[in-house]
Design brief:
This protein has 326 residues and is an all-alpha fold. Helix content is 70%, strand content 0%. It is a multi-pass membrane protein.
Length: 326
């Protein structure tokens, strides 16, 4: 059994694409196909390095485009969540820390998708069709763990700059490392995983499952606008559900050496005690807007890049035919 590719692969007279295989199985069953079912292409072997390479390129491209376009909304969200009591929201320097953040977003996004794609496709081969959602959830969590190694220091520096603590990324890294030690760059790591693992798993699972359902209903491949709309819905829904986790993560990351909070549980208790439980939903508006639009751009760019790479992939049938002629 070979990989399921989300990109539109060039059609061959001798093999069926995953979507064509899905449609044939769908029609053969009289249209009775479960929402979570998926068909895996059998003819092609699992090419780990190709999937890894294409995932790295597509993920890095999508991550940079999204971060650059939506950074001001993210800055506003961070400042809303970090504000305590009646502090006023500052709207200056909405691009503070962008350059340093891109230096981390590029490899983190590339690593996430680079891990997610081959893991997902391998799990889809191992799990039965009706458990494809489990494969997507698991692959998203594994990708999130791998990317967290880069994401967390990047997020710490970015949010310290967004809240006005530093004017440049190098200055932030030097100060944090000297005053708080290396562990200061991983402040809030536990809360980051608490937020990002379920976020990554849920967002990609919702997106993948909606695409499967849409493909089965439409009996065709999806176009870029349709992928973007599905990505926006998956991002907005997941962003809203995980907002309390994001607030906790932000508070722990921006507290610095003051250590107002002693951990995740103490952070939750203190916020509820001093500001009330609604404070755990601070920034939900810009967060849903940011991740909704971001999901639209990210998945739109991701699928377009993957299709671009797939169309330039060597055709083994043509190559073998040429060799025989030679």
């Amino acid at each position: 059994m070979g990989p399921l590719t989300l990109a539109v692969a060039p059609k061959s007279s001798s093999t069926l694409s995953p979507d064509e295989s899905t449609r044939k199985k769908y029609n053969a069953s009289g249209g009775r196909k479960s929402f979570a079912s998926i068909s895996i292409e059998k003819e092609k072997p699992f090419d780990f390095f190709r999937i890894l390479f294409e995932g790295v390129i597509a993920g890095g491209t999508a991550g940079v485009v999204v971060e650059t376009a939506l950074y001001p909304i993210d800055t506003i969200k961070t400042r809303l969540q970090a504000a305590r009591g009646g502090e006023k929201l500052k709207l200056k320097g909405l691009y503070s820390g962008l350059a340093g953040n891109l230096a981390g977003v590029l490899p983190a996004s590339a690593l996430f998708v680079g891990v997610y794609e081959p893991t997902k496709q391998k799990l889809l081969k191992l799990f039965p069709e009706n458990l494809s959602a489990v494969a997507h959830l698991t692959a998203g969590a594994i990708g999130g763990i791998a990317a967290s190694i880069i994401r967390v220091p990047t997020e710490v520096v970015k949010q310290r700059m967004q809240t006005g603590q530093f004017s440049s990324a190098p200055a932030a890294v030097r100060f944090i490392a000297s005053k708080e030690g290396f562990k200061g760059l991983y402040a809030g790591y536990g809360s980051f995983l608490l937020r990002d693992l379920p976020f990554d798993a849920l967002q990609f699972c919702i997106y993948e499952q909606l695409r499967i359902g849409y493909k089965l209903a439409a009996q065709r491949d999806l176009n870029d606008p349709e992928n973007a709309i599905i990505g926006a819905f998956a991002g907005a829904l997941t962003g809203a559900v995980t907002t309390p986790l994001d607030v906790i993560k932000t508070r722990l990351m921006v507290q610095g050496s003051g250590n107002q909070y002693k951990g995740i549980v103490d952070c939750v208790r203190t916020i509820i005690k001093e500001e009330g439980s609604p404070a755990l939903l601070k920034g939900i508006g810009p967060r849903v807007l940011w991740i909704g639009i971001g999901g639209s751009i990210f998945f739109g760019v991701l699928e377009s890049t993957k299709r671009f790479l797939a169309e330039r992939r060597p055709n083994p049938t043509i190559n073998q035919s040429q060799k025989r002629q030679d």
